[in-house]
Automatic annotation (TrEMBL):
Signal peptide: none annotated. Residues 44-233 form the Predicted 3'-5' exonuclease PolB-like domain. It holds the Pfam family DNA_pol_B_exo2. One of its GO terms (molecular function) is nucleic acid binding. InterPro entries: 3'-5'_exonuclease_PolB-like (IPR019288), RNaseH-like_sf (IPR012337), RNaseH_sf (IPR036397). The lineage of its organism: Bacteria, Pseudomonadati, Balneolota, Balneolia, Balneolales. This is Predicted 3'-5' exonuclease PolB-like domain-containing protein. Gene3D superfamilies: Ribonuclease H-like superfamily/Ribonuclease H (3.30.420.10). It comes from the Bacteria. It comes from Fodinibius salipaludis.
């Protein structure tokens, strides 16, 4: 089994204020200050340590790509959300992971936040099959398409354009904080679900492209996935 997943976060303002000297009192001004002091990228997006989780969605799929079950959560009680995610990951013993930049953000985030809340993660997440960068059981689309960093890392949205599929219809990552402030937590999970389905669709195309699944199976799974993606984008 594979778990295709994504998490949505907002900055952990309380923690950021603890680590910055003379922090700004206004949250938006604090983000600008934190981007300058803490970010290690040109976008100013903070490293995973300085985020808190407000939603996650996962899609269980069989090894041949057949979808099994969607699970998810949204809320303000991060500890509760982590517990529910770890419980979901305990459904199967030897699961694999599929994600887009999960190695760089989502998985480190889960470790930091479990550490903060005194929670124990599923042992599988620390297994060699998951930790090893070139593992077939932990598929990061960034690594798969960039040849493990030898080439540039593609955005998920741009991969959608490449295969003529419109992604990111319900929101953008930089809008999540605004949605959170407007108490649109259910909408954030819905947006997260679209990201998961987009990741799943790109993974299916990749599996077919490299010859891991045949055309008949690909066409069947892709048609089903596209119908579900359209439902999500239509707000269903």
């Amino acid at each position: 089994m594979f778990f295709v997943f994504d998490v949505e976060t907002i900055p952990d303002f309380e923690f950021v204020r603890q680590v910055i000297e003379n922090p700004e009192t206004d949250d938006d001004e604090l983000l600008i200050q934190a981007s300058e002091d803490l970010a290690r990228n040109s976008s100013g997006f903070l490293p995973p340590m300085y985020h808190k989780m407000i939603s996650w969605v996962g899609l269980w799929i069989e090894n041949n790509g057949m979808p099994k079950q969607k699970v998810g959560w949204h809320g303000t009680d991060e500890k509760e959300g982590l517990k529910k995610l770890f419980d979901a990951l305990s459904t199967y013993k030897d699961f694999g992971l599929v994600h887009h930049n999960g190695r760089g953000f989502d998985l480190p985030l889960l470790t930091y936040r479990a550490l903060k809340h005194g929670l124990q993660m599923p042992k599988r997440l620390n297994h060699y099959d998951i930790k090893y960068r070139y593992s077939n059981d932990n598929v990061d689309l960034l690594d798969e398409f960039s040849n493990y960093g030898a080439s540039s890392w593609p955005k998920l949205k741009h991969l959608g354009y490449l295969i003529d599929i419109p992604f990111k219809q319900t929101g953008e990552g930089n809008e999540v904080l605004k949605m959170f402030r407007e108490d649109q937590l259910a909408e954030i999970e819905h947006y997260c679900y679209e990201d998961v389905m987009a990741t799943y669709v790109v993974w299916l195309h990749l599996k077919y492209t490299v010859g891991d699944i045949d055309k008949e199976l690909f066409d069947n799974l892709n048609d089903r996935a596209m119908n579900k993606l359209k439902e999500i984008q239509d707000g269903e």
